[in-house]
């Protein structure tokens, strides 16, 4: 039977709204029969188990209670209700750099912070060079940290905490600090901790990061667990909770409001997965099907139906029309209801939110439909060996590469003969 590293039962945390009352203020309020400011539950009835050596992601919107949960598990604050059984020493990376003294040097802060986090002086001395190298502050280690840049400060704070080697590593949004190279080192360090059999709890909005490190997840919403299980299914639930209200399907019921003119009226546009379910969240390793349904009053050979796919900041990733198909496979239309489907192939799109802009043209010159913001959907990149390290750009295709023979250098005498002949 698998041993549990964390077993939480009915955890709840309630905070008082407004300032803390003195005895005099409370007596005065009661005498005047004024209501109290009230309370708010940051967490309520949270129950879950984490097996030893497992990596669990905690995801949710801002204010969902993620950081409060980690503070309870790290024993930074006491729960108002429920309890959590924890087996092993907990290393908490909740506020990177907390405990640093600006007047002390980096070297002195490493020893001070390390001992505050539970390491002995001998442990700090043994890992000192590795900590400094990880943070990349070798040249500044004997400089007071008040002169450090923000990036240097948080890198050193993470480096100290990450080298504690606790049985349970609790991490809250450390991937939001530092540059890309440092974030890669953070990911590698957490991945190594998981591989070495330590238990990892990770809070992050970087969905690629949590999918790389974690296999299980829980999702919090308004302080309660609303989804738990396999990381992919919970990520889908999270993306669905922040998606646009059209839910991957835009339908116009009123014929008079349908985009178009007397020739063509668009009835519906939808983005679906392989099971033909409309959605606004997809993984890049799977195809995305875009279907456009429309009514035609007559056959018009020069009618073209398609869309632009762009990022939310307005950069067009690509444009596609139904005429992109070969002559033999080009869809044919008829008077009445028509439907065409375009498949965005797997392994093409990068992570991000995309907007589908509907386009219907006549004779390649007249726009019948030029609708912006028709549909929105999110993509989580999970294809290729770079899936969690990120690449720039709206698209991230896996292209083919091969070795070829280099072009031979031109012989000097050949060049001389050319000049001589001129």
Describe the structure.
This protein has 422 residues and is an alpha/beta fold. It has 2 domains: 4-241, 3-Layer(aba) Sandwich (Rossmann fold); 249-380, Coagulation Factor XIII, Chain A, domain 1, CATH 2.70.50. Helix content is 24%, strand content 33%. It is built from 9 helices and 18 strands. It has helices at residues 23-31, 66-73, 106-116, 121-135, 150-162, 180-195, 207-213, 231-241, 412-421; strands at residues 4-16, 39-51, 55-60, 81-86, 90-93, 168-172, 199-203, 216-221, 224-230, 249-251, 264-272, 281-283, 288-296, 303-311, 316-321, 336-344, 352-362, 366-380. It is globular, with a radius of gyration of 29 Å.
Helix fraction, binned, reads 10-25%
Kindly state the mean pLDDT as a whole number?
A: 83
C-alpha geometry: globular
CATH fold-level topology of the largest domain: Rossmann fold
* CATH superfamily label of the largest domain: P-loop containing nucleotide triphosphate hydrolases
At the first level of CATH, the class of the largest domain is Alpha Beta
Number of strands: 18
Strand order of the largest sheet: 5-6-7-3-8-9
- Quickly give the structural class: alpha/beta
The radius of gyration over CA amounts to: 29 Å
Major β-sheet profile: 6 strands, mixed
Please report the distance between the alpha carbons of the first and last residues.
Answer: 87 Å
**Ranges with pLDDT <50 over ≥5 residues?**
414-422
* SSE string, helices as H and strands as E: EHEEHEEHHHEHEHEEHEEEEEEEEEH
Count the domains. Answer: 2
Strand content: 25-35%
Tally of alpha and pi helices: 9
Looking at the overall shape, the CATH architecture of the largest domain is 3-Layer(aba) Sandwich
